[in-house]
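Bit of a strange request maybe. I'm writing a small parser for structure token strings and I need a real example to test against, not something I typed by hand. Could someone generate the tokens for this chain?
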Amino acid sequence: MAFGVRDFHDLVRLLGEHPEWREELRRLLLTEELLALPQVVQDLAREVRRLAELQAATDQRVARLVEAQAGTDQRLARVEEAVAQLIHAQTRTEERLGTLEEAVAQLIHAQTRTEERLATLEEAVAQLAHAQTRTEERLATLEEAVAQLAHAQTRTEDALGQLARQVGQLSDVVGFTLEQLARELAPAYLAERHGIRVASLERRFFTVDGEEVEVDLFGEGTRDTEEVVVLGEVRSRIYARDVEALARRIRRLAPQLPGTPVGTLFGFVVHPSAREAADRTGILVIATLSR
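Reply from user aminoacidic:
Good idea to test on real output. This should exercise your parser:
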């Protein structure tokens, strides 16, 4: 007979009263795949939760990696900056090394010129030795010191300081003075080091505001095409006060000079303060020893 609506309601009521029938009916009506679907859904839910947990852990690791990468970038930037500083420092070092090499070359050239000047000085000292009649013992010491300089080609401060003192003492006795040495040596020095051509140097007197002003070294010459006048003083020891005094004297005499004044100081020993004053005032210093 036909299955009607009433029968369906009765079936629903019976299934409600007998749960075990629902399971049996489900097994009959559904395929094994559909029956297994709840379990599959549960398994899938568990897998989704596990993937979510893994994703969260992955996100944490990625965040840590990003943070670590940021730190690495900062460290790399610092390293790059340090390398740039090293490159810049190396460039400065190479420039300073080039300057030092040039200075050494100039020192070698200056040493050669100094030896030539020492040879001239030795000749002048030999002339003093021949003229000395009352200081034979000191003259023997001087000749020995000069011979040692000639053979060793050295200029120690003590040896040349002793030479300066003895020459100063001898100049009071004999007629060959430090001024005469300056007049012999200064023209060649000025020509070689500063391009100043002057035929000779002599003592000269000027009158300024009714006052007589004496200059140890005076000579007219040229520097390239410029007319210059050399005005100089001779001192056994040259200090800053000597440089400044000569600068003031040149300013007083400048209106009377026929050319550009060139201040020059000649001596045996030059104090470092005199070098600084010479650089500041433009005075030229000619000496055999700096101290």
